[in-house]
């Protein structure tokens, strides 16, 4: 039996911090072949190894070293089966639009299209079912004898992932959540490299603010926990009446791994017990795993019983960074339940999520 | 005019981290003279400089260097006008009791007597009025011709201080608070030195747990925000009906300064606006300052407008560590108001609070 | 073809930091089967998972979880083919002696027997030839029809490994080194966990001292760079006339990876050029690799050309931690050559070295 | 007796990290009045508090807040008695030249004029006597009835200061030093703020390289330890024959305070003993202190006996940052003496040195 032909993958913003992670994850991927690397005109024409300031703890993969960087245009990427975008939001809007309107499949970490009504915003251990609306569109076009249309799927904000991951199994099991608060302690890798967070800000210090982050968590949670609408072409977004979300975000001296202190109140009474909550989280299996995606973790949510866990240094790599770890599940004196979640912000919170979405698109025959 | 005679001050647990801070603050104090240093029998008999592993960024004061350490007994401390206790809770109970039942005035950082009905639990920029119940007791005894009785006053838990400080002016101005949540990012100096938090735990890491800390915040807040009862011999503690408090505590790689993400909901409607809250915090002047205590900060609460403040490295020393700094005051989607507070955990959260309580006792003629 | 039978491996000091690393490296090892775990009487009788405070970033291997810990006696370990010791030096002397005098093969990270005349002190990418003296002893005994004797082989001090690794290829190629200095910046994992380096010492700080470390580097270098003597039963140790070594050791806020600033002067004139030094380091292949040991790195020494490398975070895992990385090779205004080396202190500098020595013993048929 | 009239002080590069330190130190200075603040055209015209991103742990002094920033021209600074320059070297050359050729006294932290034959390069606890050549020039001009000429005095590189400070007393007492090596562990505040060292580079990491730093130490040491020549208009620079200097520089996760591992060999035999070296360092009193400069430390060199000192967190503020602390003085197996020095890089290594030079110029009547 011959090996399946790999899909040709492109990476936009290949020299940036998210782009570097895409390249690492694509290096020996069973579904994808690294085919195109795009960056700014300053880097275009250079070999990747000469253009990049590589800042990963894993070595630059050999198969990426000598790829000649192109500019980020449809023309350059038109042969790709899928394009992963690590572009900054100031340029992502136009470039991504050029690609998906011309028929390409784009999976983007940028925030630009997250709020569009017909764009899935996906945490792949949570809501791959949202990709149904893309599937519906593609099937309808094919049924009409049209060319397979391009589309974009957005990766969620990193700190949103660590919140909605433990919420999803609880909503499925115990019904709607009325209130949820999250105080985040976010790693500096989330801020990128050029220049990213200055050294003096992370030495013996906390920065109690991340621009736009709280708004992202508060809005994105409502979209990700929503259901696909009856027409199958959009989402029944949750409203303030359905769920109220309040976030406080801080930057802490941690390289990778976002810690979040979460409190929540269910709508239905009586609320589930601490033990029921733990069991629901342990029992949860995500669709991406059921669908057979390579990177999907068997345990989407890892529940720890030790008082002092999860910890970023010890737990961020569980499930190769695709699992979200939850600990200190206990009663809350105001709401129902308190807990601490930990998610790997550059894996399930960014590039890894993109790759897992890509695997799901392969499995669903959408590329 | 001759200088006033200074009060003789003793320090229990003098070699520990809180004891070291007491000694620093007493070194050139206008009210107090460093008179006795007590530690375990292992250190007793030695010169202080030979027994201590000094870990402060300020140098060991010369006037403490050659003091011979005594054991922690009433006999050794009976000549003191006031005794500051930095003892660990496993030994503080018995030792402190021996001293105050024999007539000494004790100001303690240990948790042992904080919940006693007739013991003031004091954050000195918040509730020095609680000391009235001691004053009443002393006056009553004196009126009866009895000997001035001993007593103990407890310093609050460090992270409690950073929460109740901004709550107090708001309760005074806008009435009771129904709900308050605090997610804390606490400095390692709060964990002491021997051994304290291990290095490997604070390097590229967060510890999402501090033993007993959340319970302390949740209970102590109710006592500190209470009023003295009508008889003047205890407190009308707040109940779960009066205020619900929920805390989540983490240890972060910061040397000094506890950051707290606070959300709160007032009982009265309409709730004050963000601007009214800021103004109330700015206008607040604590009684210790009005009473003329040397260390009392003019601005008990410093309100910052910059998005990314307060930060531990930049703001912990405001008011010499006696002020609490508050920033990011904004509307909360669930409760009324969100904010971030920063307090110097070894000053207003521990030894400094003790010294300021001592100054208040001098001003009130209670020593 | 059936799989080869794995050797039965025991671990002494199994709950400590070095012991934990041994267990990780033995978890899925092609040569070894995890067979016995020994610890203090406090832990003996418990399941490993219940006795250990696991502090590794990799998860506790499943095959170690339920092993019942034994005490560290010959009786308990007598069925082992090899015993890896992570014992503290205060107990290692007697325990290890009991084992090897009774016929067991012991590979130890403790310092107790490093200076014995007939004990190889081995950095396995440098001087596995020193194990010849053990081989000679074993063969002689077997030739006489005696029972195969026990023996001990010592792992070098962690910071010694990062120094001698780049020296060895240079001595081989260019002859003796007259002077070498090393200023080390050592990671905190080298100090163990209980309690290890206190958090307050590694936050915004450097500790310019590690007890006994400089003496170890200065002495061990002379033994490791020595040749086996003519009789094949000991070493022609280098003297102060052969090589002068001076070390200055500091502890820095790094989790894993020792950085060393090295300067050296060759005895022979003219000294090799910078380029010749680089080439010699690049060309070096260690005997353990030639012998086919699984963990031996193809490139024992990785030479980097970038100005700002090696860096602990980026380079410590090269060769899975078994390679030593060298950068900034340049002329020295006083001696001949300056360079910076980086070695993973818990892999090639401790437990990993032990495992690689074990693999070499298997290859040499010495178990 | 009326207070002396303060000298009018200007600061170039006022919004940068060195400029901020100048402003802090000038805030309540007995000799100087903060008179002009210069920055780039982007900031000129704004109030200082609106233009600066203040990153100091001390608050922005009130008397600086509302000063209107000017451009860095002679015209704007011509009324100043002294100008302190914190300019970056890419612009410092032209601007400083315009000022001193027009008659102003400039004290600069930039490197541009450090190597000029007639420009003193000064560590003010080491070689204020080098300012004699300026004094001679000024006196000669005045004697000829000419206008008092302008001049520039350069502050040394920060890591040079921590090396030459302990060398100077030893050269004075025991004669020339033949060899000296320094491996430095430098704080990130030395890299400035915009952007300075990235956070990801200082978290669990060491950067073994600082551009140009080693060359600066190796050259500047020869000028600072030189004597004024016979003509009194320049220096008899040391040559490679007089002293050989070799430096290896690293950046470490420390906010303030450069640690240096130093080894040295004297020219004269027998070399002094460890005790003699300690005594010479303890006995040293710098000229700036004898001259009565306010900021000059009584103990230029603080000698510590504890094994594990000096440490940046504990010792950097000795003498308010103007003292250099030395510990671990011991025999060196290759050279004569090893030791560890610690210097506050932004005080005696930069802005503080400038202020102390300014005080010396006042004392010498050179402004």
UniProtKB/TrEMBL annotation, chains A, B, C, D:
Q: In which pathway does it act?
A: Amino-acid biosynthesis; L-threonine biosynthesis; L-threonine from L-aspartate: step 2/5; Amino-acid biosynthesis; L-methionine biosynthesis via de novo pathway; L-homoserine from L-aspartate: step 2/3
* Record Pfam families: Semialdhyde_dh, Semialdhyde_dhC
GO terms for biological process, alphabetical: methionine biosynthetic process; threonine biosynthetic process
Task: Give any GO molecular function from the UniProt entry.
Answer: aspartate-semialdehyde dehydrogenase activity
Under InterPro entries, the record lists:
ASADH-related, Asp-semialdehyde_DH_CS, Asp_semi-ald_DH_pep-lack, NAD(P)-bd_dom_sf, Semialdehyde_DH_NAD-bd, Semialdhyde_DH_dimer_dom
Note whether Methyltransferase occurs among the keywords.
Answer: no
Q: Which residues form the Semialdehyde dehydrogenase NAD-binding domain?
A: 8-134
Q: Which reaction does it catalyse?
A: L-aspartate 4-semialdehyde + phosphate + NADP(+) = 4-phospho-L-aspartate + NADPH + H(+)
EC number per UniProt: 1.2.1.11
KW Secreted (keyword) present: no
Q: Where is the active site?
A: 158, 258
Write down the SUPFAM superfamilies for this protein, in alphabetical order: Glyceraldehyde-3-phosphate dehydrogenase-like, C-terminal domain (SSF55347), NAD(P)-binding Rossmann-fold domains (SSF51735)
Query: Which function does this protein serve?
Result: Catalyzes the NADPH-dependent formation of L-aspartate 4-semialdehyde (L-ASA) by the reductive dephosphorylation of 4-phospho-L-aspartate. Mediates the second step in the biosynthesis of amino acids that derive from aspartate (the aspartate family of amino acids), including methioinine and threonine, the latter of which is a precursor to isoleucine.
Protein family per UniProt: Belongs to the aspartate-semialdehyde dehydrogenase family.
What is the protein name stated in its UniProt record?
Aspartate-semialdehyde dehydrogenase
Q: Organism source for this protein?
A: Saccharomycopsis crataegensis
